Amino acid sequence: MTTIGLIGAGNIGSTVARLAVAAGHDVVLSNSRGPETLDDLVAELGDHARAATAQEAAEAGDIVVVTVPLKAYREVPEEPLRGKVVIDTNNYYPERDGHIAELDDESTTTSELLQAHLPESSVVKGFNNIYFEHLLSLARPSGAEDRSVLAIAGDDMAAKAEVAELLDSLGYDAYDVGPLAEGWRYQRDTTAYAGVYVDGDDWEHPRPATPELLAEKLAAAQRYRDMA
Ligand SMILES: NC(=O)c1ccc[n+]([C@@H]2O[C@H](COP(=O)([O-])OP(=O)(O)OC[C@H]3O[C@@H](n4cnc5c(N)ncnc54)[C@H](OP(=O)(O)O)[C@@H]3O)[C@@H](O)[C@H]2O)c1
């Protein structure tokens, strides 16, 4: 059993928390407005969940998931995350986050920005390219024929192994895309973004993603970049 700290408890944060509690983990949830605003979610999740400040969630987590609007990434507390594995779900939406020059000129990626903000943590990009409702509904036990893969990227192999183990417990196989700088391959507006789990326009009935399907989408992302 692992304690998962969540910085952000919205669509993705609450979904990861649901999967984690179902898998027998403990979760410590936080948001920007304060723990008391998470009473309903904590009550729904039960005894394995509690709410705290972001600082406390970061301190409590064996693994911490940062799942806030990207514009808030600099507010993620650095000190309590030292030496920890941090999963970064964030995507760049300039209309929500404002323009970030290093992302606009593609000199870095969203998860590298978080890694630069948390230099003593091991950031792993994950959960960013799946719609939160699909993340909940596509989870399957280990060995199930229709189990999906989830993409991860990071510079620390041991951290990726820890995240893969966590994903396995939550209902997914991990697909290692490579170092953090390769995270662009499944960022927003690539072929390997959330549509991997969608057949055509049918968002109501997500499809499981095999490693082959994700690999095909990642390769297409590369081809589009080469053509640009
Ligand atoms: N929605 C999806 O399906 C999806 C899928 C993959 C990845 N993502 C990405 O994952 C991130 C989270 O998405 P979401 O849809 O879950 O967003 P969301 O529903 O808007 O939730 C964001 C959460 O972050 C919290 N927050 C904001 N600023 C914070 C701060 N400074 N400290 C602590 N918590 C803070 C918010 O708290 P308050 O409500 O109290 O402000 C809220 O709980 C985004 O970058 C998004 O692009 C989303």
How would you describe what is shown here?
- The protein has one domain (3-227): 3-Layer(aba) Sandwich (Rossmann fold).
- Helices cover 35% and strands 16% of the residues.
- The protein contains 9 helices and 8 strands.
- It has helices at 11-22, 39-45, 54-60, 94-97, 101-104, 110-117, 132-137, 157-170, 211-227; strands at 3-7, 26-30, 49-51, 63-66, 85-88, 122-125, 149-154, 173-178.
- An 8-stranded mixed β-sheet has the order 3-2-1-4-5-6-7-8, sandwiched between helices.
- The longest helix has 17 residues, at 211-227.
- The mean pLDDT is 97.
- The site of NADP nicotinamide-adenine-dinucleotide phosphate (NAP) has 25 residues, from helix 1.
CATH homologous superfamily caption: NAD(P)-binding Rossmann-like Domain
Q: What hetero molecules are in the model?
A: NADP nicotinamide-adenine-dinucleotide phosphate
Helix/strand order: EHEHEHEEHHHEHEHEH
Q: Which architecture does the CATH hierarchy give at level 2?
A: 3-Layer(aba) Sandwich
Mean pLDDT: 97
Based on secondary structure, the structural category is: alpha/beta
Please tell me the total number of domains.
1
CATH classification, class level: Alpha Beta
The largest sheet is: 8 strands, mixed
Secondary structure: number of strands: 8
End-to-end CA span = 46 Å
What sort of overall outline do the alpha carbons produce when their principal axes are compared? globular
Instruction: Evaluate the radius of gyration.
Output: 17 Å
**Tally of DSSP helical segments:** 9
CATH topology call? Rossmann fold
Please bin the fraction of helical residues: 25-40%
Low-confidence stretches: none
- Beta-strand percent range: 15-25%
